[in-house]
């Protein structure tokens, strides 16, 4: 089994937690030969997209490789980090990103989410074409086909259901492990950085520079008060876009997880989960957004359902967010 497979079937349907830990242990150990950082990038993208799967646990490549492209943009363009274990070669993904920036004369301090939608789509397509070839089959082979099945033509992967539950349950630990091993690899093949600094960079590669576009969407849906205390948000500077489930846990920006909050509530809440009463309020708010049937309805609302949000709330508490906040 290897990187050049076209289709990969799931080898086993049910796996115990012990078996899954074993798979991940092999993946993070020296038994797993990594010539590039691709597998770490793919695991990070999978974790980011755990709530983007459909009811059959299928994830489409557009979601997956948007995360992947954003992560590599930050690693390669923004932080100028080499992604291979060879001093003279570059990985295919690095080449795609660097050529793209040269073609459109994009400076290296430009953030991914500041690119126009057209440019983002073009880049994601290019990254997807390469990653389909080099990334999907590699992790599949490394895990002996237990994590997901995939079909490069139909452009989807379907997660094994025991793996899916496992990843939700241990999301935080898996994120730490992936970031740590990615930082170790990068430290080894890039000069002048220690692990602590590298880890800081790696932990933030999924972060957007601005949530402005979400502010505009929420305001256009008529939200003009603080979701938590009800204070009127009469100007842009008074409104903060808040991740209801903290960003440190979801590491992604879904409209259904974003609310407008006043400065006081946003700062006081910090990296905490709000009390269940706010979960119910958010479920209601999201239902309202869906029923308005208005553009811009983003893709993430199309695959949203309230069970997903309840699950995320439940799993975030299980992953250590125990100190419930209220204003
Ligand atoms: Zn407030």
UniProtKB/TrEMBL annotation:
InterPro entries: HNH, HNH_nuc. The keyword Hydrolase applies. GO terms for molecular function: endonuclease activity; nucleic acid binding; zinc ion binding. Keywords: Endonuclease, Hydrolase, Nuclease. Residues 213-267 form the HNH nuclease domain. It comes from the Bacteria. Pfam families: HNH. This is HNH endonuclease. It comes from Anoxybacillus flavithermus AK1. The lineage of its organism: Bacteria, Bacillati, Bacillota, Bacilli, Bacillales.
């Amino acid at each position: 089994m290897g990187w050049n497979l076209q289709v990969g079937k799931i080898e086993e349907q049910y796996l115990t937690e012990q078996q899954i830990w074993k798979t991940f242990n092999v993946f993070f150990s020296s038994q797993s030969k990594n010539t590039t950082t691709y597998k770490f990038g793919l695991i990070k993208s999978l974790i980011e997209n755990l709530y983007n799967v459909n009811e059959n646990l299928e994830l489409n490549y557009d979601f997956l490789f948007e995360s992947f492209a954003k992560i590599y943009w930050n690693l390669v363009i923004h932080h100028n980090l080499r992604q291979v274990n060879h001093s003279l070669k570059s990985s295919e993904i690095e080449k795609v990103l660097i050529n793209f920036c040269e073609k459109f004369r994009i400076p290296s301090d430009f953030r991914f989410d500041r690119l126009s939608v057209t440019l983002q789509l073009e880049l994601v397509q290019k990254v997807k074409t390469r990653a389909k070839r080099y990334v999907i089959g590699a992790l599949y082979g490394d895990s002996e086909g237990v994590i997901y099945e995939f079909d490069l033509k139909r452009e989807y992967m379907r997660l094994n259901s025991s793996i899916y539950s496992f990843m939700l349950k241990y999301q935080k630990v898996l994120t730490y492990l992936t970031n740590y091993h990615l930082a170790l690899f990068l430290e080894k093949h890039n000069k002048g950085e220690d692990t602590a600094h590298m880890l800081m960079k790696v932990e933030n590669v999924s972060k957007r520079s601005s949530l402005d576009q979400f502010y505009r969407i929420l305001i256009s849906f008529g939200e003009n008060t603080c979701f938590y205390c009800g204070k009127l948000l009469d100007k842009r500077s008074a409104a903060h876009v808040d991740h209801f489930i903290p960003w440190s846990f979801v590491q992604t920006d879904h409209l259904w997880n974003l609310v407008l909050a006043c400065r006081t509530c946003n700062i006081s809440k910090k990296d905490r989960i709000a009390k269940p009463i706010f979960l119910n309020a958010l479920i209601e708010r999201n239902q309202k957004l869906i029923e308005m049937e208005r553009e811009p309805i983003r893709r993430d609302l199309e695959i949203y359902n309230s069970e997903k949000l309840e699950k995320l709330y439940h799993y975030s508490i299980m992953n250590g967010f125990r100190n419930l906040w209220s204003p």
